[in-house]
Write a structure and sequence with these properties.
This protein has helices at about 10-20, 35-45, 55-60, 75-85, 100-110, 125-135, 165-170, 180-200, 285-290, 305-315, 320-340; strands spanning about 1-5, 25-30, 50, 65-70, 90, 115-120, 145-150, 200-210, 220, 225, 230-235, 240-250, 255-265, 265-270, 280-285, 295. The protein is an alpha/beta fold. The protein has two domains: about 1-120 and about 305-320, NAD(P)-binding Rossmann-like Domain (Rossmann fold), CATH 3.40.50; about 125-300, Dihydrodipicolinate Reductase, domain 2 (2-Layer Sandwich). It has an eight-stranded mixed sheet. It has a six-stranded parallel sheet with strand order 3-2-1-4-5-6, sandwiched between helices. The longest helix is centred in the last third of the chain and has 20 residues, at about 320-340. It is globular and about 65 Å long. The structure holds nicotinamide-adenine-dinucleotide. Nicotinamide-adenine-dinucleotide binds near residues 7, 11, 33 and 93.
Amino acid sequence: MRLLILGTGAMANTHATAFGGIDGVRLAGCVDIDRTRAEAFAARHGIDLVFDTLTDALSSGGFDAIANVTPDALHFRTSMEAMAAGLHVFCEKPLAVTHGDARHMTEAAAQAGLINGVNLTYRNVAALQRAREIIGQGEIGEVRHFEASYLQSWLTQPAWGDWATEEKWLWRLSSKHGSTGVLGDVGVHIFDFATYAIGSDIRTITAHLKTFPKAPGDRIGEYDLDANDSMLMTAELGSGASGVIHASRFATGHLNDLHLQVFGTHGGLEITNRGDLGSIRICSGAERETATWRDLPLSPVVTNYQRFAEAVRTGRPMKPDFATATRLQAVIDAAFEAHRVIPRTEIAS
Ligand SMILES: NC(=O)c1ccc[n+]([C@@H]2O[C@H](COP(=O)([O-])OP(=O)(O)OC[C@H]3O[C@@H](n4cnc5c(N)ncnc54)[C@H](O)[C@@H]3O)[C@@H](O)[C@H]2O)c1
């Protein structure tokens, strides 16, 4: 597979390292509107061809697939352009800015018969795959209740850089730049983490979104800081299980932590993304009477990057695909709607 990497910012380095380590994949070219960044990226990853626009790259020919690692607002237009040129697409999350656009992308990929994948990164975490197996085999009984969180703190400390001056953080805070806030940035990951583990999609929700003051006039340069920073949700799944899901960029003390607890009629399960494989523990059988939890061993799992390369090689579809991401996108649209229509109840003084 001759792979074109579109966008050469922070996350593109993870793509280049992962795809570059897969037999049969050649990092054939890269594109960025920032030429200096693209040239440094090409030198770092041994890429020969550098382009200023996707259109130039496509008209040069010579590519089988793209890894779309542009900011969220660009995913729709650029993936559609690449698919129109016959390229398979591995797109970053969220697939689009709206559910409607995500649906168009899914339909276009199906009509063209192209491999399509979405980088729901935490599918690569062994603990998540193990949790899905355990729950699917009925080991904790019927799932009744769950609690899921995605906690980051890049708005309260500088471990990943200065959010107030760096473009890669500022576009995430501005809806006019295509951000759907914490919902699209990390919400999709935790929606997938919970629903993939439990094996049932979200059917109904309530949601509360919050944008906190961060700069004078809620603006820095061209960026209006209006995207949500925290979201709180209750969700009922198709299976009837219900739970709470929340995410924040203000979770001081957490850099990048996903946490899921699932409670079934015969046992409980808890997973995190921490460590190379994540962690998983279970409380089942007689352990329920003493609330004793047992850590389970884990082995590495196939990654999304490997699944995409294999899908292109064999012509067989992969998961998670555009259809998977489109279902998650529907949850984002529903969260905005739920936040808008559900009245708040004042507490009596
Ligand atoms: N799956 C994950 O775990 C994960 C983690 C981080 C980021 N992401 C996603 O990856 C994407 C990129 O995020 P990032 O952190 O690398 O952002 P970034 O801002 O660091 O990089 C984006 C790059 O795209 C370039 N770009 C902008 N418009 C372009 C265009 N028209 N053509 C070509 N290049 C263009 C920018 O110049 C920049 O270099 C986002 O969609 C983000 O949500 C996913």
